[in-house]
Design goal:
Layout (H helix, E strand, L loop, with lengths): L5 H16 L3 H31 L10 H36 L7 H42 L8 E4 L7 H9 L4 H6 L11 E4 L14
Antiparallel strand pairs: 1-2
Helix pairs in contact: 1-3, 1-4, 2-3, 2-4, 3-4
Length: about 220
Amino acid sequence: MARRSKRQVRADLVRVVTKITRMSAADARALEQVLFDNSVIAWQTEMKQQGLKYTGQIIDVPRPGQSDLDVLRALARKDAKGIISTFNSDLKRQITNLVDSDPRVRGNRFAYRKRIRAWATKRSQWKDVSIALNTEMRTRQIAKERFWTENKLLSKSRFKFTGPTPPVCDICVRMFARGVVTIRTVRKNRVPLHPGCPHQWEVIRVIPLDLETMWVG
């Protein structure tokens, strides 16, 4: 039997370790459900805040209607696929780097697996927080726009960019510089504007609504 080259051994090791540590379709489905459930909670939380803002009262908010649930489900599915794809790409790159940095190319693949799990745990400490923030901010923006639209507030309202200052990214700096804007600008620049973006669009002047007729879902 011909002796295998180090390049062949390396490629096989990367392939095997990647296969036993990568995220699967089942992981994607589980992540989609988590993102969806979090989106529903964020939606209801935002509707409750809008209700308080426009009526001065704490209200009970129903579960989103089916059309809104469909939107949240589709976004959760899309995000889950993107997150899994990014993770698996990062994973393969990390495994390749580990193999290349280890002079013992024929090392135990389970040792690599242990090191990869440590890497994944460390990565999740900041990545999971970023993903959760992005899901919350985007869902809150969607809920706000639905609230403004269904309560016929768009033509009467103006908006401003709010949140932590000073902003640290160029795009957020530009949004703050816009000052008072219409819904057209809001829709063209929906938050989050970048991963980890903590900013929101808010109404400048609140026009009180009747509790009995106000739409909240």
